Structure formats: C-alpha cells, structure tokens
Input
Amino acid sequence: MNLIRFEHINLSCHDLDRTQQFYQTIFPDWYVRVEGISDGTRWMHLGNNQFYLAMQANPDRERVHRIYEDIGINHVGFVIDDGEAMKSWLDKNAIEYYTMTSPETKHRIYVTDPDGNEVELVEYNSNYALK
Output
C-alpha cells in the first residue's frame, strides 16, 4: 500500500485550448495523452509519461478559490533543470512570473495559468540532498 508515484492533477478550465497552450509553452515536451467528450464536456489529459493534468472545459463556471486566502491548494510545484533558461523562455513567451529565494533552491519561479492556478517552477541547488 505504498505510494508508487504522483500521477495527475484534475483542473477545470474556462478555455481548454488556452490552458493547453499555456502548459505546453512552459513544458514543451508535454503532449495530449488522451482526450474526448464525456456527458457533453470536453476533457483532455496533458503531460508526459510520468505525470499529467486531467483537464475539463467548464466555460460557464467561475473560480471560487483565492490562492493563499481560502482553504485549498495554493500552488503546485514542478522541479525543472535550468531556472535561468526557464526565465528566458517565459520572457520570450510574454508569461509573467515572480521569483522567491530559499536556502535549498537555486530558482523558485512562480507563474499563474489562465484559470488562476499558481505553479512553482523550482530548481534545487546541486548540493541539496532531496532535490
């Protein structure tokens, strides 16, 4: 009964295509693993061989969770290999971000997806044992 791996996050999106484009800009190696329509709602699994976002279109719904203000997930973190290259890539693609520092990380970059979900892109210091 041990955890094997973290597999997916399920997101509701106003505009599924816009959200797909955002995440594929940040993670160019991600691809549509499967997609379809269920009960009239378009859905998609976007990711790689280890992890994916399970997304469904809900264009008529409004976001109710305010990150860092309400109970719920504030952000999701992804480990990246080159924070400087990521910042340059984000700049090139006009994606706004902010950064923070901590002793164990070389880069902590925060972006917000089109639906208001915050994502942390973290590069750990090479000497940090749990990277």
About this structure: The two ends are 25 Å apart (CA to CA). The chain has two domains: 1-59, 75-131. Residues 10 and 37 are 15 Å apart (CA to CA).
